[in-house]
Amino acid sequence: MNETQQNLSQQMSDRVVAIRYIVVWTGMIFLAIFNGILRGAVFEVYLDSLAAHQLSSVTLVILFFIATWLVSSKWPIGTSRQAIIIGLIWVILTPVFEFTFGMLVMGNYLSYMLNDYNLMAGRLWSLVLVAVALLPTVVYKLRRQIN
Questions:
Q1: Number of separate domains in the chain
Q2: Predicted TM-score (pTM) of this structure
Q3: pLDDT score for 7
Q4: Rounded-to-integer distance, Cα 74 and Cα 147, Å
């Protein structure tokens, strides 16, 4: 296989993996909904609103890690390049979905939604986005160490 053929093969592989992990991301929406229900039904019963938000941010990252780990056994992330591509796609899709759903479906104002990004107020959503971007790379590297 010459260099051009190898590049085309890598590009096709990158595209297939990206498409698969876009599907995974759509499934992760249901994990986020479950996590929100958990926050409202359990965490907010025992904690104040801010602490419940913080705890649910951590549980969401854990749920996303578990999902990424499990899926990567079926659909391996083959290269660090693929892991970075997946992370970039996820970190773009997440706020696009969040703001579209939040503003158009839930009727929230932009200022209300941006409040979740205020680290100085103890809001952790921006750190969740950092985790979403890094999870594919973390899982890729962990799987390489194990195998």
A1: 1
A2: 0.89
A3: 59
A4: 14
